[in-house]
Amino acid sequence: MRREWIAAVVLAALVFPVSGRTARETEPRKDGKTPQPLRLATGTFEVRKNRVSRIEFYTSNYGIFGLNVAANRGGGFWPRGSQNQYIFGGGIWFGAQKLVRGEKRKLVILSYNPNSGASWMVPGRIADGDEYSDDLKDKYQLYFSTDYAPDGTPLPEKAGERPQGPNWPLWITSETETLKVNRYFGDYVDDLGSRNVQTYPRGPAFISQEDIWCVFKDTDLRRYEGGVAVRRSQGYPLRVEIEQTIYSWGFGDYGDFIFLKYLIINRSQDTLWDCWMAPAMDFDIGPANNPVGIAGNDRVRFYEEDTTLNLAIQWSNSDQGEAGRGFGYLGMTFLESPAVDSMGFIRKDKRFYSLQEQLGLRTFRNWVIQNDPSGDEERYDFMAQRVREGDTGPGDKRFLMATGPFNMVPGDTARVVVGLVLAATSTGRDPTGFGDLDELVRKVRFAQAVYDGGFKAPVPPDRPNVSWTPLNGGVLIRWDSTAEYSYDDSERGLDFLGYRLYRARRLDLDSFDVDTRPSVSRGPFGWKEIARWEVPNPFVKKSDRPLLPGVSPYPLIDSLIFIAQPDSLTVQVGRAGYGGEPWGSFWQSLDAATRNYYLRGTVRISAALTAGRGLKRTDFSTVEDFLNALYDYIQQGKASVEFPDLDEDPQIRQRVRQTIAQYIARITNNRTFVDVGDDDRSGTIDDNPDPTRTERLFNNVDYYYRLLAYDEGDLIQRTPSKLNIGVPGVNILQAFPRPAPVSEPATVS
User: Fold this and answer.
1) Which residue, of 27, 49, 128, 296, is most buried by count of CB atoms within 10 Å of its CB?
2) Rounded distance, CA 213 to CA 58, Å?
């Protein structure tokens, strides 16, 4: 008998139903009424919008971050799809002391001047010449990993996007390093002909869900403000080259932060003394339809409550349309900065250094446009002041956080990584700057842990170990339960949901392609799915409500039961436990209080994405109509549904895995599969003289098998189901049918 266990409306009971902007000498206007920029996406100077993170932003290949250059408007929004603006524009400042005609001069280069909107940087590497080159625009484009296949080659061109260009620029060139271990993130490959798996068989270096990479330099004096001759006489350029990478994800807490990594390389023949590096940002927080008003009521301060976080925060007063619209906090933190020896030179004796060994945040400044530093010495001293400023009241604030000083000999590289983190207030009300920062601080700590842990993120199940036995006209496949006992503490949902078994005649047709389609082959001998096994979910789901329609069939949204609604942004709900096998006995084994705990939850509606309106049960004629509206909001990302996770309790976690493993053993005949070629399950083996069309397996012919495991994904973090990869010798094997020797009977148990 099948039962469904549900959380009752009454708590105690259970029931059982079945060029940046063109450089100008004045402040960039924030109403968008300025000339169009020099070049956009298809030219040498590119500006493009990201696709994945919940932080929606523009970025360029010449150092400007956040600005919608084409419209000269703020270009950073959170959450994605809302009109809640947080970023107007930003970039970095790099200052150094350099010997010029025998005397040390303080020089500062800018990838974003908040006073004019100009960048002094140009795309490209210094080895290709001091000036930028239109002939190299494809090589030095703004690279998005989402434009590339797993083997590093460009995906087919999409309408409205840039033409296909070179392969992905970052590859695993080391034979000894492991990607994402000991801060190894791959290496830049300059030679376009070497960007391939033939040269680097360990493949391209992809880190996050969307990596964005570019390289720019300070050597084209035509881009400087002040004139070529004047700047050259002052000692410019520094001959600095900067590789910039942005790492981002689109799910859960990961979707609310991005990492900006800068590799600052001294390509000159000079030692650069007492260097300082600083992100310099113009963050304007407020409704995007009021660009002028929202620029003047922002608040900024250093987070003094815990100086080890290296954290600066910004928020907005609520007098320019922000009130009740879901605005929160923007935080910026140093995740990594240089470590120096006793003489101030960059250390090179270890792969990476602890936070205690790093320089960290030394200077934090916040100021308004009237106080913009303008000269070389003024800008340098501004960065090197070693003060950490607090809140000075509302205004059109700029914000600079600097690390230093460090010395760079020719060829040195300084690695600086900053995290940009967005969070709602911990009270659910408008931000005040004090007492409601718990959520931001939690996310900042989590972001630091993700970075320190090698970009730890949700992963697919472990790979099962697969073996085989030859049969006459067939192959017997066996595997173990490794995948079924997978545990991923980065994600909720079932860490194992099922298996897919593939067969191929050739291993090389799509070796880098982990394909999730049920039956796919690159030609008649490519990978084809021949079997699938799946565990029912322990909770009753809405089979017609995948969380991410068009992206993944899983996770499915729980079939919700309306309980109560405290306010228009919060709904208390229940869900039903699945009473069929294998979960009926599992639910019966729990006491009533424990069952009830796992079956009650909350739907939280985003104030930012609904302009504070939310949904009200009283506005709908039936509960079913209200729940359908809730399902729509959940699918659209305007609401999230939160239930306790079965993995919270280690004992229950283990029982869940035992339940899954016993069920899989039962439906797979103890994890075996006999492949005789009957792929359509008709009961007969369709023979055909054409070897590309026959179902028959030929004796003494090689076949390849790949057994992949997949998980459920996570409703809260909005992560899709993930399929693991095939590794030869583990879950990919080479096999062949053969008749048994005369002395050995061919049997299958």
Assistant:
1) 296
2) 13
Contact 242, 263 (CB under 8 A): yes
Cα dist from 524 to 502, 521, 609, whole Å: 13, 6, 47
The CB-side HSE value for 211 (13 A sphere, CA atoms) comes to 23
Q: Domains in the chain, start-ordered, CATH in brackets?
A: 5-16+539-645 (no CATH), 47-145+207-452 (2.70.98), 149-205 (no CATH), 466-535+672-735 (no CATH)
Specify the pTM: 0.76
The answer to whether 720 and 713 have CB atoms below 8 angstroms apart is: yes
Q: CA distances (Å), 4 to each of 8, 352, 487, in order?
A: 12, 53, 26
733: which 2 tokens? 């094997």
What is the spatial distance between Cα 374 and Cα 679, in angstroms, rounded to a whole number? 73
Q: How confident is the model over 443-461, as pLDDT tens digits?
A: 999 999 999 989 888 888 9
pLDDT at 716: 87
Lowest mean pLDDT among 42-51, 52-61, 339-348, 423-432: 42-51
What are the E-state strand segments in 22-68? 47-49, 58-60, 67-68
Q: What distances in angstroms separate CA 358 from CA 352, 353, 361, one per listed residue?
A: 9, 7, 9
pLDDT digits (tens, 9 = 90+) for 79-131: 998 999 999 999 999 999 999 999 999 999 999 999 999 999 999 999 999 99
Q: What is the largest CA-CA distance in the chain?
A: 95
Local structure of 406: helix, strand or coil: strand
pLDDT in tens, 636-663: 989 999 999 999 999 999 999 999 999 9
Q: Which residue has the tokens 């322990």?
A: 538
Residue 315: both structure tokens together: 């928020």
Nearest to 368 by CA among 288, 291, 292, 296: 296
Confidence band of 493 (pLDDT split at 50, 70, 90): very high
Q: Can you name the residues that pair with 242 across neighbouring β-strands?
A: 216, 264
